[in-house]
Amino acid sequence: MSGSANRPVGRRTFVLGATAAAGTALTGTAHAAGFGWTDDGSNYVVDTGAQLVFRVSKSTGDLTSLVYRGTEYQGYGGKNSHIESGLGASTVGIRQSGSTILVSVAHGTLKHYYAARSGENNVYLWTDKADASVSATRYIVRVKKGAFLNDEPDSYTYAPTAIEASDVFRKPDGQTRSKHYSRRRVMDYDYIGWSAGGVGLWVVRSNHEKASGGPFYRSLLRHQSADGGGLYEILYYGQNQTEAQRFGLQGPYVIAFTDGGAPSPALYPGTLTTPWADSLGIPGYVPARGRGRVAGVGISGRNTAYPYTVGLANPSAQYWASARASDGWFSITGVLPGTYTLTVFKGELAVYTTSVSVSAGGTTTLNTIAVPASNDPSNASAIWRIGDWNGTPAGFKNAELMTYAHPSDTRAAPWTGNVVIGDGQTAAFPCYLWKDVNSGILVYFKLTAAQAAAAHTLRIGVTTAYANGRPRVTVNDTWTSAIPSPPTQPNTRSLTNGSYRGNNHTFTYSVPASAWKTDAGQYNVLRIDVVSGSGATGFLSAGTAIDAIDLLA
């Protein structure tokens, strides 16, 4: 279960700031019965004074216990909750300042923090990654077996047969399950977790300011296995990554317990404010007064059939917001000072970019952004078009299913089958093409005598590729294109683990008039092959995801 996010990620006011001495214990007056911390010899034991008690290992910084209303929820397979796969030997300290307790963890150049607030059943977490000495940036909350059960796409408790890489499974009924099958982009959720028996356990994500991949990034959010379950905050996973890692302090993200309902909206990344953390002395912490805002009056030249998103990105940070459907107005707040590339996306397709500068405490106001007609490939006059240019495979055969299932899933329509223009071609054309599965698909179409007398440009838009798979085309067995160079794409699995998100790219082919049939009553035949010298077999052979295909007038 997860919460949807229809708000800009950048609207959260949170802070980052000066240094706290590790291991320094500060006393303070408890503001709820039992609020405070103790040392059991191996762990710092923090009582929020509400219904939550948690323990942090003094030697590793792992979260070793989460007891809510007297029941232990943390841990499976002898494993703790922690950064990546566990940091190992670390320097761990604790201090209390009034109604806040802060646990600090240092492991080489990586710093991590847990904070508790008096009377709250929440654990606030920050992670500060300075370099690549720790490979990924993820926090996993490991949940005991049997605490929560489900059979959602991203759960594989009931799927005993592994079919790919030991993390994709098939159930007896032929449906597939994997922790990768979250269905959701980052911008689509505020929290992830489970609810059962009057208890909800959630991870409320951060604003992903220091994450990589932008608003449309997809990654694993939770899983279940025979041992128990896991909830994730993924900031950099090294899978389907379209950007380099960003470093610095990220957070807070929140482990939240409830009486079964959703976590409070006050914790969501679009609304969370943490002025209580301003004085904690966390290195890299920038308070609200040290951040700025970008506001846009509107966006003209939009195709109102699609949602528009405005993103800000530079090597240090990323933010985004949804543009208002009526006029394209947008506002992105809580932005670190600096110069950013501002990108306007139609769906997930970039149609406009510019540069903006943000200052602390200031608002950068932009007049109406006019998207040139030529920036949207849908505006080009086409003889025929399969799909539309929106940066996704939406509308193509099996497209929706592929965000939560493996291509071999029994629910998938056949990946083969040719297409006749004018016959519901988008729904008939597969969203993905593989060298070893459905390469060589045929598209049949007719041209008028005047159209056949001229050369035309054929365009194939893709959203990602696996193993450098790219399309080579043949027309009427008389003309074959050159093999195009592969564009830059993520070098990990994508098409089989629930993500079509890579780098949008358009291949163009100049087809000479001599390639067309001269009889207007005859069908022309376009053959699309996937070519690559890489990849394995089957659904792990070289492949690509389709955005749109058209023949320009």
Automatic annotation (TrEMBL):
Keyword entries, A-Z: Cell wall biogenesis/degradation, Disulfide bond, Lyase, Secreted, Signal
Cleavable signal peptide: 1-32
EC number(s) on file: 4.2.2.23
Main localization category: secreted
Source superkingdom: Bacteria
Keyword Thylakoid applies: no
Reaction catalyzed: Endotype eliminative cleavage of L-alpha-rhamnopyranosyl-(1->4)-alpha-D-galactopyranosyluronic acid bonds of rhamnogalacturonan I domains in ramified hairy regions of pectin leaving L-rhamnopyranose at the reducing end and 4-deoxy-4,5-unsaturated D-galactopyranosyluronic acid at the non-reducing end
One Pfam match: fn3_3
Residues covered by the Rhamnogalacturonan lyase domain: 291-366, 383-551
Locations listed in the record: Secreted
Main EC class the enzyme belongs to: lyase
Domain Rhamnogalacturonase B N-terminal: 35-284
PROSITE patterns, per database record: TAT (PS51318)
Coiled coil feature spans: none
UniProt cross-references to PANTHER family, sorted A to Z: RHAMNOGALACTURONATE LYASE-RELATED (PTHR36574:SF1)
Similarity comment: Belongs to the polysaccharide lyase 4 family.
Protein name: rhamnogalacturonan endolyase
Taxonomic classification: Bacteria, Bacillati, Actinomycetota, Actinomycetes, Kitasatosporales
